[in-house]
Amino acid sequence: MGKNLIQITQIQRIIVLYIVVACIWILFSDQFLQWFFSDIVLNSRLQTYKGWFFVMASGVYFYSYLEPKIKEIDILHGLIIESKEDVKKKNEFIETILDNLPIGLAVNYIDEGSASYMNKEFENIYGWPSEIITDIDSFFKHVYPDPVYRKQVQEGIMEDIGSGDIGRMQWDSLEIISKNGEKRIISAKNIPIYKQNLMISTVQDITRRKQAEDELKMSEKLFKSLFEQAAVGIAQVSPGGQFLKINSRFCEIIGYSENELLNLDFKTITHHDDIYLAEQCIKDVFSGITDKFEIEKRYIHKNGSIVWVKLYSRVVRDEFDSVKYAIAVIVDLTKRKQAELKIRQYNERFNMLHEIDKSIISSFSTEQIADNVLKRLRKLVSCPFARLMLLDSENNDMLVFAVESSYDSQIKKGTHLKLSQNLNIEKLERGESLLISDLREVKEPSSPLAKLLIKEGMRSALSVPLIVENKLIGVLNLASSEINFFSKECHEIVYEVATQLAIAVHQSELNTQIQQNSIELEERVKERTSQLENTNKELESFAYSVSHDLRAPLRAIDAYSQIVVEDYANKLDDEGIRLLNVVRENSQKMDQLIKDILSMSKVTRIELRYSTIDMESMVYSVYEEIATHDQKDTFDLSISSLPQCYGDSVLIKKVWSNLLSNALKYTMPKDERIIEVGNYSENGKNVYYVKDNGVGFNAKYAEKLFGIFQRLHRTDEFEGTGVGLAIVQQIIHRHGGEVWAEGKINKGSKFYFSMPER
């Protein structure tokens, strides 16, 4: 463009020069013509021709010279117009970019302080339009309405700008007030261009970022607090199994310090039986098969004890979806596991005692009772040797009445031992147990049997007296090859068994005596009858003791468990509440078992009151009492014409109640529910039956149905304790009849009982 301007200037000079030359030419050429031609007319014509020639020659010359120059000028003009349009478009493009920048931008004149330009984001951030914020003073006045804060900020900013140090012209976390009164946090920067007298100001709204940073800091602080103060152990684990970070609770659970654990891997502190499972789970999460897992495993405490934990683990990935580390949450289950073990032990204990009770009830002779009790007791206590010795006061000795041993002991059944050889007999007579933790430390063993126990490898022993009516009737002895084997719990178990066994042995001996003396003279029958009545009173006392001494603790267990569940639920986790409910359920179940035993005991002792019974009316009456409204609507009951019988109406009603209740219960799962009551005569007896189309039973177990506590179905399938049919059998036997049953699985059952015809 500069070259074109130079060319235009040269043309102007040529034109001026041409005008000067032309004027000189015209003036002086006319004088020359007058010198040569004196004729005025000719001279005038020549001057005219000369003028036209000059004009034509000049025109041709100028045209030939200026024509390309004019074209260049036209082209140059067009380029200038295009350049202006291009500059305009570029300016519009730049303004569009500036107006849509995500940061605020403003341009001010340095010396005047007035605003030259503000983009939209600048106005949006401060909330004030450019028409209002025209200079620095108006800017500070509107953006910082608090005069004290405004003065503080303005002086600081102006001091930074006045320093000329660009590094100081950057401000972070300034608090401003927008037009609508909203507080915002900004980051600003000034860029001076001194040559052009301009100051470029940039600003960013970092309110959300600062809020996010503050929230992140709070979150990190909270996480750190939770991490350190959590009630569970937390660990950060590398893909290689090394601990990266651990909290104090995890250190408490395992017993190691933080520095010690950071120098160990998970395998070092894991129980060797659980290492493979833990390795597989870690392999799965770090290989991408899963992002989390949860297992129960065992750690080895620093002191060598086993620590049960529930471990929850989840991996953390980076932005490239690669696993960075895993977070493990460790819940200490040791106390819960110990409690579960204790509950299992108590359940086993109660079940075994229950089995012993059944053994005592179902056995007929003292030998049977002793053998069954010792066999179950040795399993319950897990000792290799148990024996029962009975006192023979007439011969002043003790008889080894029963022996149960896991090895061939020289202490045989039938061995007699003189009381004088037992130095601790007086202690046993006082009802005190003898516990010897280590037989080898006893200088003079109290009996030859004790010496023999040492010889056979026994190291500890326990002797519990059998006391009846404050008299010693026998001793229950147990021995073990381990020192200090018999714990307080073992002693309690043996004491309970000894108490029951004493009553059973004494009762059995009384029954034996009654049978032996039944053939004696009639006058002695009265004496034996009196003894029997006393014995029955003892049984009633025993029944009362069972009802009171056993059921009261059970009710206490149930009540206190309920109190814990209701009053301390917020301090227990779901598993703790579940375990307490299991305790309640089992105590209620045992209470029901005791009630059923007492009920059966009453059936065997109650005096029969015979009368004529309308069996058909009784069946209808019982069904109306026991069947619910819904059952009556869904069951099809048919009752044949039943003959009368002669018996105790109260007890016979119990028979019908038990049989009809069972029919209702075991037929409920069926869609079609049918109960049939009928009879027939056979061998001088009326046979009554209750038939249903219920779930039935396996026929080969039919004989077990009428045994006490015998069940062919699980309690979670059908409720009951297995006493009802045993009561039915006792009642019918007392009336001189029989009971039996037929059935097939899923094809119903049929229960019969016979009564003598009157």
Q: TL;DR?
A:
This protein has 758 residues and is an alpha+beta fold. The protein has 21 helices and 23 strands. Strands 13-12-11-16-15-14 form a 6-stranded antiparallel beta sheet.
| Beta-strand fraction estimate | 15-25%
- The strand count comes to 23
CATH fold node name of the largest domain: Beta-Lactamase
CATH C-level class of the largest domain is Alpha Beta
Mean pLDDT, to the nearest integer, reads 78
What features would you describe in this structure?
By secondary structure, this protein is an alpha+beta fold. The chain folds into 5 domains: about 1-95; about 100-210, Beta-Lactamase; about 230-330, Beta-Lactamase (2-Layer Sandwich); about 365-600, Beta-Lactamase (2-Layer Sandwich); about 605-755, Histidine kinase-like ATPase, C-terminal domain (Heat Shock Protein 90, 2-Layer Sandwich), CATH 3.30.565. The chain is about 50% helix and about 20% strand. Strands 13-12-11-16-15-14 form a 6-stranded antiparallel beta sheet. A hairpin with a 5-residue loop joins strand 3 and strand 4 (about 185-195). Helix 11 runs antiparallel to helix 12 and helix 17 (about 575-605) packs parallel to helix 21. The relative contact order is 0.03. Mean pLDDT is about 80; it is low at about 1-5.
Note the topology.
Blueprint: H1 2-36, H2 40-99, E1 104-109, E2 115-118, H3 120-126, H4 136-143, H5 147-162, E3 170-177, E4 183-193, E5 198-205, H6 207-229, E6 233-237, E7 243-246, H7 248-254, H8 258-262, H9 266-269, H10 275-286, E8 292-300, E9 306-317, E10 323-332, H11 334-362, H12 366-381, E11 385-392, E12 397-405, E13 416-418, H13 425-429, E14 434-436, H14 448-455, E15 460-468, E16 471-480, H15 488-517, H16 522-567, H17 574-605, E17 610-613, H18 615-626, H19 629-634, E18 635-639, E19 645-648, H20 649-667, E20 673-682, E21 685-692, H21 724-734, E22 739-743, E23 749-756
Parallel strand pairs: 18-20
Antiparallel strand pairs: 1-2, 1-5, 3-4, 4-5, 6-7, 6-10, 8-9, 9-10, 11-12, 11-16, 12-13, 14-15, 15-16, 17-19, 20-21, 21-23, 22-23
